[in-house]
Write a structure and sequence with these properties.
Structural class: mainly beta
Distance between the termini: 40 Å
Helix content: under 10%
Order of helices and strands: EEEEEEEEEEE
Largest sheet: 7 strands, mixed
Number of helices: 0
Radius of gyration: 13 Å
Length: about 120
């Protein structure tokens, strides 16, 4: 069983930045993929970004390319989502998720609100 603790959400003005963190309760080396999803009111949950731990390959949804980065701190078993140049349309509940050889796990959501 993997537990994920997400943090870093909040209220920010358009153009501002936030960094989300997601700490895993197990060694990061037992995790294949780490990522962030988001769900805005009335919309489906979407994959924002993920990273393959072994290769470092990352994926970003088109709407955040060039503004968001994803990184992993192996020593802290933590994945980060650095969000810059935030837009009101980035407002959503952000969820971290990890994929292991056995299962997928989800953290609790953290709310990001971007005011115009």
């Amino acid at each position: 069983q993997v537990q994920l603790q997400a943090s870093g959400g909040g209220l920010v003005q358009a153009g501002g930045s936030l960094r989300l963190s997601c700490a895993a309760s197990v060694s990061i080396f037992s995790i294949n993929v780490m990522g962030w999803y988001r769900q805005a009111p009335g919309k489906q949950r979407e994959l924002v970004a993920n990273i393959v731990r072994s290769s470092g390959r990352s994926y970003f949804v088109d709407s955040v390319k060039g503004r968001f980065t994803i990184s992993v701190d192996n020593a802290k078993n933590t994945v980060y989502l650095q969000m810059n140049s935030l837009k009101p349309e980035d407002t959503a509940v952000y969820y971290c998720s990890v994929t292991t050889p056995r299962n997928d796990y989800w953290g609790q959501g953290t709310l990001v609100t971007v005011s115009s």
